[in-house]
Write a structure and sequence with these properties.
It is globular and about 45 Å long. Strands 1, 2, 3, 4, 5, 6 and 7 form a seven-stranded mixed β-sheet that branches. It is about 15% helix and about 40% strand.
Length: about 120
Amino acid sequence: EPTMSQVIPPVILSEDVAQVVNEGGSVIVICLESVSRKGTAVVGKWIFEVVSADKKTRRLVVYKVRNKAETSLTVSGVASKIISWGFPGIIIPKEKGQAFELFKDGSYSADWRSDT
């Protein structure tokens, strides 16, 4: 039985994501705002969830200071996170409500979030 101190909070810091991925976990990239062009940048809004290797926990990636979802507003911002977390390639959902689950071997699965 896990004690209270071992209960995993439903959030995870960005710098801890790579370790979970390395252990076989996955990252879900969720698009909250469909992409559009802003000058030379491609912008939108994305958040990230991390799924443990055993598929039992799903945690929101948050900023260090407060339990606020870590958000990326550009495609390059999403790409740099995906790379820093150890994935071999980049795939980014571009329609609001669309989500991609990325795996360490480079594969991914797509789904839609009706709750976004």
